[in-house]
Amino acid sequence: MTRKVADCRRFPSETNCTLTIAGEEEEVVQAATEHAVSVHKHTDSPELREQIRNTLELEKTSDTA
Question: Domain of life of the organism in this record (predicted)?
Fold first, then answer.
């Protein structure tokens, strides 16, 4: 499973938000959208979800076990 990450620290905000969300792509898009609406006062829309999806990164994993 490839996990994706949404990291608010990558984007300027009035609250200096530091939230990071990681999981499967659809989970992250859903959670990040809810966060963007409730905390950052964005409007939930297909455009917002697509913007979020386009900013997701692959989770960095450690090769050490």
Answer: Bacteria
Q: In 10 A of CB 32, how many CB atoms?
A: 26
Q: Report yes or no: 17 and 39 within 8 Å, Cβ to Cβ.
A: yes
Sketch the domain layout of the chain as residue ranges: 4-58
Each residue of 11-54: pLDDT tens digit? 888 889 999 999 999 999 999 999 999 999 999 999 999 999 99
pTM, full prediction = 0.86
Cβ atoms of 59 and 22 within 8 Å: the answer is yes
Contact yes or no for 31/25 (Cβ under 8 A):
no
Rounded Cα–Cα distance for residues 37 and 48 (Å): 10
Starting at the edge strand found earlier in the chain, the sheet holding 57-58 runs 20-23, 4-7, 57-58
